[in-house]
Amino acid sequence: MDIVGRNSILAAQGTSHTRLKSFITRAIDQPDALRRIAIKVQPRVASALRSWAEKGTVVAYNEVKKVTFENIGKLFANLEPSPVLDTLDEMFDGMLMGIRSYPINFPGTPFHHGIQCRNKAIGIFREELERRKMYQNSDNTTKDVMDGLMLLKDDEGKQLDDIEVIDNILGLVVAGYETTSISITWTLYYLAKYPHVLQKLREEHMPLRKEKDGEFITSDEITKLRYTYQVVEEIIRLANIASTIFRTAAKDVEYKGYKIPKGWKVILWARYLHTDPENFEDPLCFKPERWNEPAKPGTFQVFGGGSRICAGNMLARLQIAIFVHHLAAGCKWELVNPNAEVTYLPHPKPVDGVEIAISKLGFERTLVEGQENARGSVATKVALGPLQSKVKEASQPSETGMETSLINALSLIDEGEVSIGDSGQGNKVQNGSNDNSHLADLLPRSGSRSAVLKPCKLLPNQGVIRWVISIKERVESKPLGIKS
Ligand code: HEM
Predict the structure, then answer these.
(1) Does residue 75 sit in the same domain as residue 183?
(2) 86 in any annotated domain
């Protein structure tokens, strides 16, 4: 609590807790709020997925964190991406490490660092509060959670102090940032591991995407997607992000013949509940269909329960479902390390942070796939989906075999404008170099379409480099990376 703050909802008790809980639930977790939030967060999600697809290979956890934090900044304090938001992101990382460490406030310890990060974050939010006080609307309208907290009054009409407002913003970010980021990371993992589930999701989302014709999905539409709901519940059951829940016995309690005396600390081991075959058949299997039936009472405690139940549980579900929508209807991706081990502390996640090779559905083709030869050049086979008919066999490997085959293939696709994307990670390309920007000079540059070429790393077939080409309609400005 020294790091999150003693005034935060996470620490508050009694009427103060009830008042804060009711405000926060209204602000972020009820249908009206969720409607507004769904519209606010989606542009960032859609643009993040576009940028991942352009990069070709990304570590999902790192990228999801960025977009989640940008959305949190907007929702809680109307902050746009900026150096200040980046600093806050760093401060929250430090605070989270501190919260999970021994509370030894001594220079060099994570706890001490967490306190320093808290103080720096307080400084930033204090400035924001002062700015708002100067420009406060006369009609008291609220654009975000911080505005709402500033206006919140107790029974005697007293408003929260500055530090109470700030502690609650800190508490919400601490409770919602990492948890949401990890659950979305697991979403990418499970959907890649279970393609039949992704396929069923596509069947649910594609028609909707078509019908919406470029507009974003609404939270009301999301609540009608039955299979999506089942997938989300199954992801959060298996992800077990909050593996334990703490309570203190308020009075002597008798449980299954054991007496728990008043004042004792009790830990509910939620991960055990969620993976107990008594509660869930074949519990370690990812089976969204199990949610055709509700869980047995008391066996599904992902968000805790009672008066302390998670204040952002519907918001978390909504954010996962929004990602599911944009991923299922717009992307395809593979796990780079499908057998990565899972670490469990501080939260369960695959050790590689879920590295994925990702591209946009329908806009990219696997262009050239071939065995690397002794010189590190690749060019044996052209594999194109719908464009196959326009492509002939690539030329045989040679000193410049890879370039030649790509150029041949491209020239057959369309007269196109071509830029070379970054070369991905760990790929050996022509002459063992990772810099393939020289290829830009060799490729055709006219017409209304542009293409980005990227080799993407595929570990399962060592020695094979697959080139991904993203073809885009040309926009007014010149696409980045084109040499003229
Ligand atoms: C998948 C994501 C999430 C998981 C697994 C999760 C889980 C939990 C759990 C287990 C608790 C403790 C409940 C108890 O003691 O009974 C909790 C509390 C809380 N969570 Fe979440 N949470 C998630 C997302 C969020 C989000 C997005 C927010 C808001 C931005 C949020 C805000 C809170 C708050 C404010 C509390 C304290 C509630 C209170 O003390 O009354 N959580 N959460």
Answers:
(1) yes
(2) yes
Which pLDDT does position 362 carry in this prediction? 65
Residue closest via CA to ligand 1's atom 21 equals 310
Provide the 3-class DSSP secondary structure of residue 427.
coil
pLDDT tens digits, 192-202:
999 999 999 99
Query: From ligand 1's centre to the CA of 317, what distance in Å?
Result: 12
In this predicted model, what pLDDT tens digit does every residue of 35-51 receive, in sequence order? Answer: 999 999 999 999 999 99
Gap from CA of 474 to ligand 1 centroid (Å): 44
Domain finish residue from 318, 337, 356: 356
2 belongs to a structural domain: no
CATH code of the domain in which 91 resides: 1.10.630.10
Cβ of 172 closer than 6 Å to ligand 1, yes or no, is yes
Confidence of residue 185 (pLDDT cuts 50, 70, 90): very high
**Residue 348: CB within 6 Å of ligand 1?**
no
Annotated binding site for heme: 310
- 154, part of any domain: no
Residue 143 lies in a domain: no
Asked if 33 contacts 39 with a C-beta cutoff of 8 angstroms, the reply is: no
Q: Is the CB of 75 under 6 A from ligand 1?
A: no
Q: Give 215's strand partners.
A: none
Sign of the dihedral through C-alpha 470, 475, 479, 484: positive
Distance CA 338, CA 352 (A): 10
